[in-house]
Give the backbone structure.
Amino acid sequence: MDNEKIKQLKRTPLYEIHLRNKAKMVNFAGWFMPVEYTGILKESRACRRSCVLFDVSHMGEIKISGDKALEFIQYLTTNDAASLVPYRMQYNLFINDRATVIDDFMLYRLQKSFLCVVNASNKDKVLSWLRKNVRNGVDIEDESEKTVLLSLQGPFSQKILEKVSNDSFDNLKYMHFTELSISGIECLISRSGYTGEDGFELYCDAGASQKLWSLFISAGKEFNLELAGLGARDVLRIEAGYPLYGHEINDSINPIEASLNWAVKVKNKDFIGKRIIIDALNNGTKIKRVGFVMKDRGVARAGYDIYKNSKTKIGEVTSGIYSPNIDKFIGMGYVETSYADIGGEILIEIRDRLYRAQICKFPFVKIKTKPCMHRLLQTKYTD
């Protein structure tokens, strides 16, 4: 990456801290972000065994308020925002009139508004879509620039957070959040994350981020807290079976093809693209997202072709890694639905040779803390 391109990249308020910790920095969605500190595999193991801290301040935060905010969100998304009460959150999907995915995001219901936490690469696109469809009684505010997001993930995350905050989090359930002052820093804290482990995501004002980061580093020493970058984050989300926009989902894929039926509610709400979604639910789709474990040793990279036999191509890999936590090569991809049965054998073309793999359930790893998301990922559509 040349110097001119580096100058154009955005930086989080924690950029200098990442450099001091010798992070390897890369361009991610227009941001200069740490991809690793001490090694992707080491950081991935640490998340499952102890705890890691991520800077994910590149994510976008969009607040939607006003008398018609709920009605507005309901029409543009697939999940049921009306089921949320204040201090609850849900995974949701913005879709278009073709019922394909504009972005997947986390929706927080505050007392008088909603907070949408969207992918960095899609923030401007989502804002444009929201503003295009805005109606009277709806206010849209981009709070991304003034917000920092830290993610504390792993078995010891609660102990570290309690040490930093001098408060108990025993009663904060998965996909719930609270607002709390930590050493004078006002934080929104949710029990959530993108790793499949127990963990917390903390939002605070950008100006207070370095102080909050330092508090976690200090408190985490006795629990072997490690810094983790986007490389480990990718490994961990694949191990958990979570999709990533631009890989498993995009604006040519609908939620049913992506095996995200559980995030689609067609009863008691009208939404854009609903007719197409109902047709996909009733009549099935031509392709389906699946997970697979390699039976032959090899890394299945995004874009590699998937075959049923040496002559019959049935799909394409979207993500593939070596999993350090189960010592297997795993991945996700799309195959023709008739070949998507769990346990079915497929072939993946890697450097002009076909390697055997087996379709399996999500998640790939056994999670000690079993949050709702994993059960939802395996729940069939019942609405």
The chain has three domains: 3-59+145-239, 60-140, 286-377. The CA atoms of residues 177 and 308 lie 45 Å apart. The longest strand covers residues 312-323.
